[in-house]
Amino acid sequence: MKKKKLVVLTGAGISAESGLKTFRDTDGLWEGYNIEDVATPRAWRKNLQLVLDFYNMRRKNVMEAQPNAAHIGLAELENDFDVHIITQNIDDLHERAGSTKVLHLHGEILKMRSEKNERLIYNIQDDIRPGDTAEDGAQLRPHIVWFEEAVPMIEPAIGLAGEADIFLVVGTSLAVYPAAGLINYTPQGIPKFIVDKKIPYTSSLHDIVAIEKSATEGVKELAALLQKLKM
Questions:
Q1: How far is CA 196 from CA 10, 169, 170, 190, in A?
Q2: Which domains does the chain have, with CATH numbers?
Q3: Tens of pLDDT, residues 150-174
Q4: Which of 94, 106, 143, 206 is labelled catalytic?
Q5: Which phi-psi region, left, alpha or beta, contains residue 131 (left: φ > 0; alpha: ψ -120 to 50)?
Q6: Active site residue 104
Q7: Is the pTM of this model over 0.90?
């Protein structure tokens, strides 16, 4: 029997429990930095060294972090469902937990690319330094979608959302666009669930089951609910 297609949108809340800070905490800072100083094309042009230092540290943080029970729980759903994860996160914790189909909307911290040609992408685990160049001679930059940049993977994500039999949202309150709009592309009438510690009211949540818990607790509860839907 063909498995149902389970599409999961994940956000910073799922990785926060692995010790990776979110930039949308109370003060609007990310690890003590203003977003516009480290995560925009203007910041890159203004102070390349600062931006590289910031992401080099984020890369170290990710490599030191471990997948938590929520990452592992979503990976285990592949036993019963055709699971596709769309993540807003730049870490690789879904992959390390065992998920096999992961689409990164906002890029990947363990990759770098030419600042001129976004198709020239390379794996990296060490630091990127000023003067490190791609094969086209351009400076290498983190393979991250910064604020004020287009989100090239949003089209494939919209396609996945439109094919979902079940749609889950984990660790995001549907406040960051364009990712938050993906729920609007899901087929009418399919089961939809959201897990987040604090779920604000929005009109897009009128037919969605809300589980207001941390990702690790909520995914455990979700897994039990989904058992009834796998056939």
A1: 10, 8, 6, 20
A2: 1-20+71-106+152-231 (3.40.50.1220), 22-64+110-144 (3.30.1600.10)
A3: 999 999 999 999 999 999 999 987 7
A4: 106
A5: left
A6: no
A7: yes
